[in-house]
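Example 273, ligand retinal.
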Amino acid sequence: TAGVDLLAQTGGELTQPEVYQLVQDNLLLNLSFWANIALAGLSILFFVYLGRNVEEPRAQLIFVSTLMVPLVSLSSYLGLVSGLTISVLEMPAGHALAGEEVLTMWGRYLTWALSTPMILLALGLLAGSNLTKIFTALVMDIGMCITGLAAALTTSSYALRWFWYLISCAFFVAVLYVLLVEWPKDAEIAGTADIFGTLKSLTVVLWFGYPLFWALGAEGFAVLDVAITSWAYSLLDIGAKYVFAFLLLRWVAAHEGTIGALTTTGIESSTAA
Ligand code: RET
């Protein structure tokens, strides 16, 4: 990996300017970061424009929540591009790259803990779900991201890296349960089943890609190169954030009335049903 050459020159831990230089020298990697920063910036402007006439509070909340996604994303990629949230870690015995220094973009896992709950909040509100289910989905999701971060940062034991990974997967199962079993029922009652169904499928399919690339990339079995894995995450991000947000917000802007009616029907009746 790219980290190794520079380490040979410096003979130890990399400083932030050195990591920054490493990213600068890897055109492919640098490009994937800047592509996402540009996309986040444009999305923010576009989504603010899309929501300019939305007045119903619940629809507004979906907008604010969804708008947080590109806002967090921009910060996330800025952290990576500047070298602030990338470390060079020595992998433990047992790992395919044991003893080698591997570039770890831990900033991604950290910022997912802030962006993915916003995606779920927007989805839960769209489905007209109640506070209990929304809270459950959000905390399980944060648990997933933080334990995923722990998996990536553990350098003492290879087995413990995968232990963390398993815990993260367990949290993920809880999120999937709410998404696939609970919210579709709520969305049916709320009259948002069509758009919810589309966004649910998009979300579930793309979200599965993240643990998959974690396992295949340098953090896991190291079948894929760091730059390739980073591009994979960047592409998944484009679908899971921007395509998702666009479809959701376009629908909400056009169906404010349906969302507005949920304030009185959705929250209360979905518990009773
Ligand atoms: C990790 C590794 C451990 C196991 C699991 C993971 C799941 C990550 C997911 C991330 C989704 C991120 C999104 C970001 C967009 O902003 C942490 C990779 C289950 C599902 C949608």
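Summary: The first strand starts at residue 87 and ends at 90.
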